[in-house]
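ENTRY TYPE: paired fold submission
RECORD: A
CONTENT: sequence, then structure tokens
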Amino acid sequence: MRRLLENGFDDFYTGELANELAGDRNSITVQDLQAYEVLESQAVSGEFNGYTVYSSPPPMSGVTLIQQLQMAETAGLTEMEPGSALFGHTFIESVRETYRDRSRNIGDPTTNPDINTDQLTSQAYSAGLLEEVDLDEINGDSEGIEASTDDQGNTTHFSIADSDGMVVSATNTLSNFFGEGVMVEQGYFLNNHMNNFAQTENSPNVYAGHKRSRSFITPTLLVDPANQEVIGMGSPGGNRIPQIMSQVLIYSAHLDSLEEAMNMPRITHGTHPETGERQVVVESSWPEESMEELAAMGHDVDTFYTAVYFGGLQVLVADFEEGQVQRITDPRR
């Protein structure tokens, strides 16, 4: 790392450091490193609870978050009692539908130029997804939801506001602990995002050279121009990130308090680690009666997970009218 400080980042992509790395790894060439470039992409956007939501574009998961928020508002989730079986069922089935849509449509836009994010984040499209949700029983069919290995916990999020009114929401991930667990002689770890490519040939996320894999990271800004307020937020949590974030925002719309929403028990859609079957995972503080009702509806409900499993939101609320910045942290990490 000292060499990067002394020689600059060009050394990593085009200089001596690039030649050394390529010489040590059969799968990386000097041409690969020279061809890499940082892309500046326009954020995807939608509306929720009076805010304009700006979130990460494909191949990240801002589209999925916005769909979940808009479906929740249309379905009345913001009016339902948090922790109730009706809330849990409606939320889980909506999440599953957005993940199915993610599998169908989200990939690297440089190799999938037909991705229409304006359509995918429209209120009408979200309403169409909601029509596939049955409020009385589960959709036991997992067809169309690609299995994901993006289930690791080594993601970091931070949000920053400055005195000029700039707010940044940034998420960084290695996927697994220390990436691949391989430290090269030059002194840094290789990441393991290759695991995030799909295994099916017809997926927009199927592997190809110079292609960016899909990711569940979802750095997000919510803007209320009327009150000159900006919320920056994001979380670790692997494939649960969008649903963790949307759930806290749905709670906050019901409770009118982000702090209180942060401490509410969480429910997530997942898959059983051994069987791969669909599963609902709740925190141990989720109401027992609600768990029993969810099980009676056909959900496989499990609570055997640590607090770390349910993410660790970092939220910053910048009130530029009052000149104040509030930090709201998640007690789970």
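RECORD: B
CONTENT: sequence, then structure tokens
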Amino acid sequence: MNHGHHKFHYDEKVRRVRQNPEKILSDIGVHEGSVFMDIGCNDGFFTIPAARIVGMHGKVYATDTDGDSILRLRKKAEEEVLKNIYTEIKEAESAVFCKGCADVIFYGTVLHDFNDPIQVLKNTKEMLAPNGKLINLDWKKIATKTGPPLAIRFSEKEATDMIHMAGLRVVETKNLSEDFYMVTAILNS
């Protein structure tokens, strides 16, 4: 069920009007030295700012199935001399970068694109550090001027249900704007 809408190139300036990646990353607790994972990263809208924030003592892992997006991301990282980004062209269902190391695992408007979102979320459980968190920023399941078709979007309830099925505990669901919501989850203790 990979709908692939995330494979097209977003105009970053237009997207920044709707989402400020630096503010969002700061608000979710990404900081100097963090290990951040951007699953379904496209060409790095959140990856690049995260790499700047985590600095040389942090790490950013980014994966996407679209090789062209990864190449654009690598080029941006090279232009900014960001050496803390590790990229892979890979399906999220098989992406496990490390065990118990991630401070933040981030899904930016992509959960509906995965063939098996539950498996992707189970991978999150493997990769999260004991105090780490999963962040799912997604489109609301309402009609919007842009974004993926309404039929493939997950409502906040559908997303939280999947996160629970994967064995994680939702600690917050919040409204980000008229079009987006964000779910925060942690490991069950």
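NOTES ON RECORD B: Confidence is low (pLDDT under 50) at residues 1-9. Residues 67-79 form the longest helix (13 residues).
STATUS: closed
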